[in-house]
Amino acid sequence: MPEFPTFVEGLPLTRRALEFAAERHEGQRREADDAAFILHPLEVAQLLRAGGYPDEIVAAGVLHDSLENTDATPLELEQRFGSEVAALVCAVSEPSPDGPYAERKARLRDAVADAGHDVLVVYAADKVAKARELRMMLARDWSAAASQETAEKLDHYWASVAMLERRIPDDPLVMKLRFELEALATLPPGVPAEARY
Description:
The protein is an all-alpha fold. 64% of the residues lie in helices and 0% in strands. It has helices at 12-24, 39-50, 55-63, 66-69, 74-81, 83-91, 101-113, 117-140, 148-167, 172-186. The longest helix has 24 residues, at 117-140. It is globular and about 45 Å long. The termini are far apart.
């Protein structure tokens, strides 16, 4: 990735993580808008940077999907970015890829619920970005709102905000997530006003 967003200035670990993630996610596209997949980890990292979090946590935001969506390994992340970053990425990655979506995400929420503050904020930033992506997807194709996949995602996001509100209720990222979900519920995209009532 030749150009870096300005928010990574002064974050050397995040810059290295961005180079790594851009290479590993190369060719992957986001479902919501067909943008390069790297945009999602970048959005997560930007949310963390805007929240004032340090380089290690922002770098973990860039790398948070690397174990699930690339061939990266925990050992490789530890060797390249240190044990703190690797531990954060491991903590926000699904414990096991086995089983249906709802079961996998419930296991992940349970694991994150028992983790420390830094894990919780990386997880929260990811869910804010995912809720925004869901809004974009529904704006492009409102018929997807009726799909089981969308219902399962929304169930997961609502369960995530409930868990986060128990653990870090006053964190701005958790408040942002609640807003995104409430906005989706009360002001859905692409729906004519007369069809909302």
